Amino acid sequence: MPAAEWDMHFELVAAIEALKRGRNAVVLAHNYQRPEIFHGVADFHGDSLELASQAAASTADVIVLCGVRFMAETAKLLAPDKLVLLPDLDAGCSLAESIGPDDIRALRRRHPQAPAVCYVNTSAAVKAECDACCTSSNALSVVESFAAPEVILVPDRYLAAHVAAQTSVRIISWQGQCEVHQRFTGQEVREYREAASAFVLAHPECPDEVRAAADYVGSTSGMIAELGRKRPARAVLITECSMADNISGAFPGTDFLRPCNLCPHMQRITLPGIRASLERLAPAIDLPEDIAAGARRAVQRMLELSRPRGT
């Protein structure tokens, strides 16, 4: 980010930092957040799994979730005694909106022996109907943890196909898709490689032809780790384009090409919104306990599977 832009954001960043100290608050920011949030005010940043883990471990009184609603709900599930703020309640998700709790119940009636796993990009009400939650970084291990011949995995059709290609478990999927990742094409990937000799990293939410054409497929945290291993001269991240801005400073030897598909929901979170949220201690996330109990159980199973095992 140019120095002039940092100067433009300075007063807001300073005000938010003062409010964080006064409220005993932490800011959790997803990898897709704007650079001025990601670098300017976030105490922790990462993918959905990393943010969920940070929420569970937090000792703060207030958690400001800079992401979308399902992430704030997950933070509230894991930190029920904390005040969890989402600066804009309209920050939603096309995947989360593609499926409801009635859909899960119908799937379970049709496949009564199959455990149900839902992607973290779902509402708490959907999570409450499932046996476990997963993220793109641990979906395979969660699915295989049941040792079942078939598993329901919803709602993202492309993540389900990605997992199905790596396991003998029969995957029962749903037809949800991400409005950002579905816009990428295999032809774009091939053109980036041919025109710029770029190393291509794609998110599992991308269409099948994109994943097949990419050099690496994985979660946002997986992409960062792969870049650290490969250190390519040129790279293109086939995901929400704010991520390249956020991580480019960590890889000064890599030229990032930027196919810019922005998530309109992530872009609803702004520095003025964060400041206002901390000033008003609103909007707050609140979940009915009957939903929260089931959803918390599903998320906690995911976290237990993700913890390193001791010797």
Shape-level CATH architecture of the largest domain: 3-Layer(aba) Sandwich
Annotated CATH topology of the largest domain: Rossmann fold
Q: Uncertain spans, ≥5 residues at pLDDT below 50?
A: none
The oligomerization state is single chain
Q: What CATH first level of the largest domain would be assigned?
A: Alpha Beta
- Proportion in β-strands: 5-15%
Helix tally equals 14
Overall average pLDDT: 93
Tell me the domain tally: 3
Helix content: 40-55%
CATH superfamily of the largest domain: NadA-like
Please describe what this structure looks like.
There is one protein chain. This protein is an alpha/beta fold. The protein folds into three domains: 3-92 and 267-280, NadA-like (Rossmann fold, 3-Layer(aba) Sandwich); 96-178 and 290-306, NadA-like (Rossmann fold); 181-262, 3-Layer(aba) Sandwich (Rossmann fold), CATH 3.40.50. The chain has 14 helices and twelve strands. The protein has helices at residues 3-23, 35-38, 48-57, 69-78, 101-110, 124-127, 139-145, 157-164, 186-196, 208-213, 220-230, 242-247, 271-280, 289-306, and strands spanning 25-30, 44-46, 62-66, 83-85, 116-119, 132-134, 150-154, 170-172, 199-202, 216-217, 234-238, 255-257. It has a four-stranded parallel beta sheet with strand order 2-1-3-4, with helices on both faces. The chain has a four-stranded parallel beta sheet with strand order 6-5-7-8, with helices on both faces. A four-stranded parallel beta sheet has the order 10-9-11-12, sandwiched between helices. Helix 12 (242-247) links the parallel strand 11 and strand 12.
